[in-house]
């Protein structure tokens, strides 16, 4: 399909054009160019998704390898999950561009440029079938993200967040690059399918393959904000402009997980297939730790964007659990979960931006009751919060249900409990903050919340609250509705079978054979998944109301709670040196566990 | 084996520098040190004994050459490094402008 590269090329070319001419053009022209490029690539992504029933390949410059020959050129291989991810990412970039029409004043054309580059690079990342290409696209996503984080660099907070983010992400990229270099040294190939075929033919699972797997996995987990690689992501989310933080949460972190899954199933699934059990246990452990720690941390934040960031990390832990089950149902669960979470979480961040614009603050306690006259924002906030609480047949329900059922079938009885804990903890924090800000319910002081520096509102021409509210409302309701579409879950199961079939992927890319027929996707609602979803919904709402008045607990209890959280708080020091030390420590532990267990 | 150990050694030296750094420019240089270890690793993988540069203009095509792919990867890697380093230096300059200091502990705004 010749249109495939266009959906990355159009936003990149538009971004270059706007960057070169933006200084002389009126601001509106940059906005219009941004809308047009983003809209065109969204439309193309939709076309590619509809037509990517099997796996569609595209070879740049016509360097299509002979049947069974060595792939010299760079090839893309588009499967339905990758195309859907590209559509989600470009769609959210488009929504954020519309939202921020008048949001940022200073040099707005540069913001348009960075958002377009972010969207284009993330689409290229998920469509590519070449491991070095994937690395470069991720670096492009990251560099755009660093610059977006520092966008309003009038005060020191954005600088700290961006600097920490850039250094730590870059170290993570080196880990990935080391892994890629080792794979190239062994196989002489960079095409995912060719690396996989050569590793399978070789059959050795020695230190080199395990080291490469550990380095690539840890490098991408570091980019996905898994504990203990989440510190710098929290800082970056808190200081980035709201629409940028929204796409970080909804797209960028999930890209890291997508890469882990894509590279495992195209490269390592054959040669490390007999070690499924230890790999599953290690990754499930990381996911569960992330889900629990982040849910607790989200309850301790008073800065709304930082609280939402920790809520995202809790969900990212759940996504990793879905992928770590190493079963198509789990992958399908993670995919539909990422969709509804991405829509709802974007809406929440955008409401944060509305509060900052209309009321000049983003601190939960300072904003107490100040959101009363913002009905649109309030509705969007609570609808999105409910969508994230996994209510029966709405929002993240299908994702939860697929992961729970898949875990149950594999004998991991504790997975639904961890998912419910993460969902209740993180959603309760969102509901608590919403009740305080929009309704003035609860107490004005809260001994458990951490101190945060104030954030100044973005410079404004005229607030376009109507546009901003509309975008936030549409996304919130879309996030809620995504779960009601049970046909989507079945489609995702079908696509996930395709995604996890290494042999078929290799045949399509290298031998030009049609994709092996994946089993038709089907998905039935189980009683236990409905029960769990009622538990998470009711639990989130009750805990959300209860935590608005937690200052009224007897003093010894609050003191004990605060003391219990002190060590957890203390490790989030804001120092890049500590973060890099954690990165090294986490890589050592995860890599060491993989090395010990894969024998 | 030696180049691989050298790459790991330089990477660890760069990490040590970042972890103990008290100056943002110093941190940026240490990131570059880390990155240079990846160049050595890539070039070491493409090395062949008694081989020459992979430019076929004035050598017989039967001549043994080193792997050009890893050299292309190294070049791309350098481009990525330039983008990241320039961004880090720009941020460090902004920090210096606003706080007259390059000590990372001076700019810690958020924690916990």
Number of strands of chain B: 0
What structural category do the secondary elements of chain A indicate?
mainly alpha
| Annotated CATH topology of chain B | Helix Hairpins
What is the rounded distance between the termini of chain B? 44 Å
* Gyration radius from CA atoms of chain B, angstroms: 19 Å
Find the biggest chain interface.
A-B, 49 and 41 residues
Total strands of chain A: 2
User: Structural class of the secondary structure composition of chain B?
Assistant: mainly alpha
- Residue-averaged pLDDT of chain A, rounded? 88
Summarize the amount of helix of chain B as a percent range: 55-70%
Number of domains of chain B: 1
Q: Tell me what portion of residues of chain B adopts beta-strand conformation.
A: under 5%
The value of Rg of chain A in angstroms is: 23 Å
Query: What is the chain-wise order of helices and strands of chain A?
Result: HHEEHHHHHHHHHHHHHHHHHHHH
Q: What sequence of helices (H) and strands (E) makes up the elements of chain B?
A: HHH
Task: Report on the biggest sheet of chain B.
Answer: none
């Amino acid at each position: 399909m010749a249109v495939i590269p266009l959906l990355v090329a159009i936003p990149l070319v538009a971004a270059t054009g706007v960057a070169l001419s933006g200084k002389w053009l009126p601001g509106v022209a940059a906005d219009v160019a941004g809308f047009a490029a983003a809209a065109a690539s969204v439309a193309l992504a939709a076309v590619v998704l509809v037509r990517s029933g099997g796996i569609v390949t595209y070879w740049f410059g016509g360097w299509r390898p002979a049947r069974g020959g060595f792939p010299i050129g760079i090839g893309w291989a588009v499967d339905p999950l990758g195309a859907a991810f590209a559509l989600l990412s470009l769609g959210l970039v488009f929504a954020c561009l519309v939202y921020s029409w008048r949001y940022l004043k200073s040099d707005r054309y540069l913001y348009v440029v960075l958002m377009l580059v972010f969207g284009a690079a993330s689409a290229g990342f998920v469509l590519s079938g070449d491991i070095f290409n994937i690395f470069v696209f991720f670096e492009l996503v990251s560099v755009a993200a660093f610059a977006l984080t520092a966008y309003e660099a009038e005060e020191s907070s954005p600088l700290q967040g961006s600097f920490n983010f850039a250094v730590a992400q870059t170290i993570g990229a080196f880990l990935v690059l080391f892994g890629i270099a080792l794979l190239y040294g062994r196989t002489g190939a960079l095409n995912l399918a060719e690396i996989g075929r050569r590793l399978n033919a070789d059959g050795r699972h020695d230190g080199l393959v395990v080291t490469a797997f550990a380095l690539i996995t840890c490098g991408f987990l570091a980019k996905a904000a898994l504990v203990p690689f989440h510190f710098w992501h929290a800082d970056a989310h808190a200081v980035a402009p709201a629409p940028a933080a929204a796409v970080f949460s909804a797209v960028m972190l999930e890209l890291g997980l997508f890469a882990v899954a894509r590279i495992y199933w195209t490269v390592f699934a054959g040669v490390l297939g007999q070690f499924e059990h230890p790999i599953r246990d290690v990754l499930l452990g990381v996911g569960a730790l992330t889900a629990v720690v982040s849910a607790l941390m989200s309850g301790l934040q008073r800065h709304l964007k930082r609280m939402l960031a920790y809520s995202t990390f809790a969900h990212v832990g759940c996504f990793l659990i879905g992928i770590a089950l190493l079963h198509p149902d789990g992958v399908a669960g993670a995919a539909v979960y990422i969709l509804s979470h991405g829509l709802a979480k974007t809406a929440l961040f955008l409401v944060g931006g509305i509060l900052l614009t209309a009321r000049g603050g983003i601190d939960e306690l300072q904003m107490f009751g100040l959101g009363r006259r913002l009905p649109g924002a309030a509705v969007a906030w609570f609808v999105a919060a409910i969508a994230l609480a996994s209510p029966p047949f709405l929002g993240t329900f299908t994702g939860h249900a697929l992961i729970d059922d898949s875990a149950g079938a594999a004998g991991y009885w504790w997975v639904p409990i961890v998912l419910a804990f993460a969902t209740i903890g993180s959603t309760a924090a969102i509901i608590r903050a919403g009740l305080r800000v929009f309704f003035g319910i609860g107490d004005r002081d809260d001994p458990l919340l951490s101190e945060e520096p104030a954030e100044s509102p973005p410079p404004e021409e005229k607030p376009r609250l109507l546009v901003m509210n509309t975008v936030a409302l549409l996304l919130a309701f879309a996030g809620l509705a995504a779960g009601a579409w049970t046909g989507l879950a079945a489609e995702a199961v079908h696509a996930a079978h395709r995604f996890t079939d290494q042999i078929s992927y290799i045949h399509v890319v290298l031998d030009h054979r049609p994709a092996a027929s994946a089993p038709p996707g089907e998905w039935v609602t189980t009683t236990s998944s409905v029960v769990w979803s009622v538990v998470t919904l009711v639990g989130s709402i009750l805990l959300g109301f209860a935590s608005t008045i937690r200052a009224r607990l007897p003093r010894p209890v609050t003191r004990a709670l605060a003391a219990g959280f002190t060590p957890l708080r203390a490790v989030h020091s804001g120092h890049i040196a500590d973060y890099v030390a954690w990165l090294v420590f986490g890589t050592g532990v995860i890599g060491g566990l993989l090395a010990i267990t894969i024998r | 084996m030696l180049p691989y150990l050298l790459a790991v050694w330089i990477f660890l030296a760069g990490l040590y520098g970042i972890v103990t750094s008290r100056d943002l420019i110093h941190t940026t240089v240490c990131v570059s040190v880390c990155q240079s270890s990846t160049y050595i690793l890539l070039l070491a993988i493409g090395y062949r004994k008694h081989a020459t540069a992979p430019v076929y203009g004035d050598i017989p095509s039967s001549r043994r050459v080193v792997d050009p792919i890893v050299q292309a990867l190294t070049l791309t890697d350098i481009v990525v490094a330039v983008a990241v380093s320039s961004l880090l230096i720009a941020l460090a300059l902004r920090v210096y402008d606003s706080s007259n200091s390059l000590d990372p502990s001076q700019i810690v705004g958020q924690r916990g």
